[in-house]
Amino acid sequence: MDLIGCCRAFVRVSETGSFTRGAAAARIPQSVASRRVAALERHLGERLFDRTARRARLTPFGREMLPSARRLVRLAEVLEQDATRARLRPVRLAVPEVCTTRGLVDLDVEARAHELFLEFRRAPPAERAELVREQDVRAALVAVPAEDGVWTVPLGVAGGTALRRGAVYLESLRVGRSGGPRRRVWIQPEDDVPHVRDVVTRGGDAVGLPPAQVSVADALTSAAAEVLGSADLLLCSAAQAGELGLRWRLIGELPGLARGFDATATAAEDAERLRTLVWTGIARCLGVPTAAEAAG
């Protein structure tokens, strides 16, 4: 028996003095209101209404039970209101600084369709994980090795000057091979993590690049400025290169280099909702290539 539904019908009928009007107030058919009141009477073991009168008149037992029924209905309504507020409470999400405003807007729109409300905080990789541990945010998109990622973003290099077709080889950047000034590869803060930074650094060492030719920038803006004002290259995704107006190529020695991302949260269900309900929106936001883009 639906005790709350039965008590709600009982309270509304008692307030209106009519099964018809009480059913309307409870937004249920009159036949349903009658069945619920009858079920409550059977459950309690006494009649609640005197059905011999024209009006639905409370019996002495019904008058005794009405205050308790009202309290139960009020508590149920408070519970429903609290549940609604809890569903609408935003999930504060730490996201990579590489996410564009438009990408975050599109993600927010997709999340709202699933009654998931997000607030965003941009932060570098190490800080995002720490924000979750300190409970400054409820969830974060954290950097992980590509093989462990729920979302994977291929990385290459991009430049403001013309690049040859095909991959760019780090070996070609050696002084004396390129026939020009020393060209640096700039690593932005999002890729200043061991599973990306160290791979690129080792790749440069393996082909004889001096350590200074692979540099970690303090910010994406400064790295992009260095690249736009010279023949230097920026380690980035194809989506970032497009946003900055740069020409993008894979790295010949490191064709599988990629960023990996996963969701973590203070509550496991929040992380799972991000992985499932809004996978597509997060993928777009991070720059995961579509199937057509990957094929092209």
Describe this structure in words.
With 296 residues, the chain is of the alpha/beta class. The chain has 3 domains: 3-85, Winged helix-like DNA-binding domain superfamily/Winged helix DNA-binding domain (Arc Repressor Mutant, subunit A, Orthogonal Bundle), CATH 1.10.10.10; 91-142 and 263-295, no CATH class; 156-256, D-Maltodextrin-Binding Protein, domain 2 (3-Layer(aba) Sandwich), CATH 3.40.190. It contains 12 helices and 12 strands. The protein has helices spanning 3-16, 19-26, 30-44, 60-88, 101-112, 125-133, 194-206, 220-228, 238-244, 268-276, 279-286, 291-295; strands at residues 49-50, 57-58, 91-95, 118-122, 139-144, 151-154, 156-159, 185-187, 214-216, 233-236, 247-249, 258-265. The strands form 3 sheets. Strands 4-3-5-12-6 form a 5-stranded mixed sheet. Helix 5 packs antiparallel against helix 11. The protein is rod-shaped and about 105 Å long. The two termini are 60 Å apart. One of its GO terms (molecular function) is transcription cis-regulatory region binding. Residues 1-59 form the HTH lysR-type domain. This is LysR family transcriptional regulator.
Summarize the structure.
47% of the residues lie in helices and 17% in strands.
In the CATH hierarchy, the third-tier topology of the largest domain is known as D-Maltodextrin-Binding Protein, domain 2
What structural class should be given to the helix and strand makeup?
A: alpha/beta
Low-confidence stretches: none
Distance between the termini: 60 Å
| Distinct helical segment count | 12
Helical fraction: 40-55%
- Annotated CATH architecture of the largest domain: 3-Layer(aba) Sandwich
Main beta sheet strand tally, sense and closure: 5 strands, mixed
Radius of gyration, rounded?
31 Å
- Share of residues in strands: 15-25%
Strand order of the largest sheet: 4-3-5-12-6
Beta strands, count: 12
Shape: rod-shaped
Rounded mean pLDDT score: 91
Estimate nothing, just give the exact number of structural domains: 3
Order of helices and strands: HHHEEHEHEHEEEEHEHEHEEHHH
Q: Which class of the largest domain in CATH terms?
A: Alpha Beta
